[in-house]
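Our platform keeps sequence and structure together, in a single record for each protein. This encoding replaces a full spatial description with a residue-level series of whole-number codes. We quote a single record here, exactly as it is kept in our systems:
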Amino acid sequence: MIHLFNRLSFTRKLILINILVILPVILIGTVVSIYLISENEKRSLQDEIRAISQLTTAYATPDLLFNDKKALSITLENLNTFPNIIYACILNNDNEIMVTYGNSNIKFIPIKSKSKVFSDKENGKLFNYQLIEYKGETLGTLVVISNTSRLDELFRNLYISSFIGGSLSFLVLLFMSAKLQSFITQPILKLVDIIDNVVKTENYKIRIDENPYKDEIGVLYKDFNLMMANIESTTVSKNYLDSVVDALPEMLLVLDENNKILSINKAVTEITGFESINLINQSPGKIFGNDIIDKILDGSITESKLQTNQKTFDISISATAFINKEILQRTILSVRNITQQKKSEEVIAEYYDELEKKNRELEKLSYITSHDLKAPLRSIGSLIMMMKEDIAGEDITREEINDYFDLMTKRTNRMYSLINGILEYSRIGRRKDNTELVDLEQLLNEVIETVIPKHFEIIKQPAFPSIHFNKIQLYQIFQNLISNAVKYNDKPIGKIELSWKYIDDKYYFEIKDNGPGIAPKYHVKVFEVFQMLQARDKVESTGIGLSIVKKIIEQSNGSIGINSDFKEGVAFYFELPKK
């Protein structure tokens, strides 16, 4: 019932309320009026019969004293002037009927009562018993019976007139109430239409003309206009704030007290690919992963990875909780893309490591350079002193002078080679050399023709690949390794093997010879600058070639090593990633 009432319009609710109020009032008023009128008529009829009975008793008393039935009959006949009386009789003390009037077929029960009036509703009659007394002595009883049909007709007409009057009153009151309620509902319905228009158009500039009457409706209109002004101001501020928030490059997510997403800014959609409709009322774990979202919210994780359909981001996350009266109201997640920052940090770290490495190399190079460059100078100085002493003694020959000059030339050339080696070593990594597709088959043939003597046996695996690398540096690698295999070989017939393989996007190369081996304790030392396993007077070398090779390979993210047990032969192997 309440559900049906709630579905009615405001106007119909008022009409129904009017009906429910007016109709019971009219019905109750009609019933009460009929009851009061009927009771009044009944009492009037009873009073009338009682008065007639008393008057008749007064006339009948002397006749009854003399037992004059004829006179008693004449007295009762006078009752014909009262059309409602349909029967009357006089009883003696033995309740025997002495005389009668009217319809003698009417039955009644004789009773002795000074005065008694009662109604027989079933038969529509009214009975009155009146004692006839003289000087305190009862002579008999007068019984008067009246017909109540007149009263019933009165009641019937009263009911009809009450129904007609009540119906007309109800219609008049309903019409008047409808007119009156229209004065009430019209401004309210007008306000409802305006509110509906605001909801549909979201036009918060709409205002309503204030009600001319200074009643509650007028106050409601005034409050509505004030509310709309506040909403308009709030909407402008909200739109401005939304524009600012959407313009931010950081992702912003607003969570409710249950840590469900209430709103997001534009950056969330642009970075994650999720539309707002797919995230509202969802857990932020849908974006960041359910396994870490609790740690993000409690602040134990401030940086993480964000995986989307397109790429992976490095992100910085901060969670700000808004608490009111110790109850969590909202949480704002601010997520910043720090991928570029991470890359910059990695580049800076690489530069720092490279700088540290350069400083260490420079420190080491400075020490070795000062030591190794002094050696040729000391030799030259010693030779000059020896020449001066021999010339002063005048016992030096031209051949000995030429030998001194030859030795000084060798020391000078060694110093020149050392300086060139130092320059070449220092240039590696400082300049960006362009890479190109290098045909290793052709490059190795050039190195072999230039470096390897004819009494050496060359075993080369066929079909060396073409790789992307700096051609000059690649030439330096193979030239230094192959020339070392030739330079230090102590066999009558030298043997050099060249091989390669390609595994897991890496090229593996090996240069193996049958010369003297290298003890394992020198496998690292031989790659250090100016380090040699044999005296320079025995083998002419700067001791910087393997350092150059190692530096070139490591600058290209490769590696180099040695296989040798010092018994016979050595194999230099190195790997280069595919570019």
Remarks:
- The chain has a mean pLDDT of 77.
- Residues 88 and 144 are 4 Å apart (CA to CA).
